[in-house]
């Protein structure tokens, strides 16, 4: 009889261990479901988020001033492929197009009658024979020039990021160098 009792106890012990193995994952799954279900996030209705994200853009970006008084970059995918920095300045001098104006973009920038712009690597120099750049531009107009030239130079100089480009203005005085990021952070 002792052998039968021992076998019965062994079978009972095995069944108990099997039940424990089956219960443990079920208990863990129920606990996880309760924790995740009770995270405190309540359902909400539709929340307006503004314009859709556009991601990183390729090609030329021009910078204009928004209704909020901040610089806003706009893509110009229809523009000819950029071959030189003066072409970017010519497009910038034209100002925002009709759709951009309807969105409230403006341009306080007035270009000098004559200028020369050159770029090498992460450096851009914009020259004008007068003191136009030293005392003729407000902060937003300066930011328009700096950010547009930085983006244009990054397209022309392979491997140069717009954030790395430094723009200097030369006339009777030299001012700068400036970086676009300091104008976009405001």
Protein model, in words:
With 186 residues, the chain is an alpha+beta fold. The protein is built from 6 helices and 6 strands; from the N terminus they run αββααββααββα. It has helices at residues 2-37, 85-94, 98-102, 132-135, 139-156, 181-184, and strands at residues 61-65, 71-75, 116-120, 123-127, 166-170, 174-178. It has a 4-stranded mixed β-sheet. Strand 1 and strand 2 form a beta hairpin. Helix 2 (85-94) runs antiparallel to helix 5. It starts with a helix and ends with a helix. The model is unreliable at 50-56 (pLDDT under 50).
Condensed summary:
This protein is an alpha+beta fold and 186 residues long.
Q: Low-confidence segments, ≥5 residues, pLDDT <50?
A: 50-56
Main β-sheet, in a few words? 4 strands, mixed
Query: Helix-strand pattern, N to C?
Result: HEEHHEEHHEEH
* Percent helix range: 40-55%
Mean of residue pLDDT values: 76
Task: Report the C-alpha radius of gyration, rounded.
Answer: 32 Å
Give the amount of beta strand, in percent.
15-25%
Q: In total, how many beta strands? A: 6
Structural class: alpha+beta
The best one-word shape is elongated
Identify the strand order in the major beta sheet: 3-4-5-6
Q: What is the count of helical runs?
A: 6
**Cα-to-Cα separation, first versus last residue:** 90 Å
């Amino acid at each position: 009889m002792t052998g039968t009792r021992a076998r019965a106890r062994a079978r009972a012990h095995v069944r108990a261990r099997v039940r424990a193995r089956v219960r443990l994952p079920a208990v863990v799954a129920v606990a996880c479901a309760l924790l995740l279900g009770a995270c405190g996030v309540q359902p909400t209705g539709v929340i307006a988020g503004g314009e859709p994200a556009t991601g990183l853009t390729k090609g030329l970006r021009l910078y204009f001033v928004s209704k909020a008084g901040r610089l806003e970059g706009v893509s110009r995918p229809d523009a000819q492929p950029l071959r030189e920095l003066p072409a970017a300045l010519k497009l910038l001098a034209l100002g925002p197009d009709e759709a951009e104006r309807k969105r409230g973009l403006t341009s306080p920038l007035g270009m000098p009658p004559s200028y020369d712009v050159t770029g090498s690597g992460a450096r851009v120099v914009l020259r004008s024979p007068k003191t136009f750049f030293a005392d003729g531009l407000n902060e937003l107009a300066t930011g328009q020039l700096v950010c547009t030239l930085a983006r244009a130079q990054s397209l022309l100089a392979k491997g140069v990021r717009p954030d790395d480009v430094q723009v200097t203005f030369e006339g009777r005085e030299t001012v700068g160098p400036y970086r676009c990021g300091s104008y976009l952070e405001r």
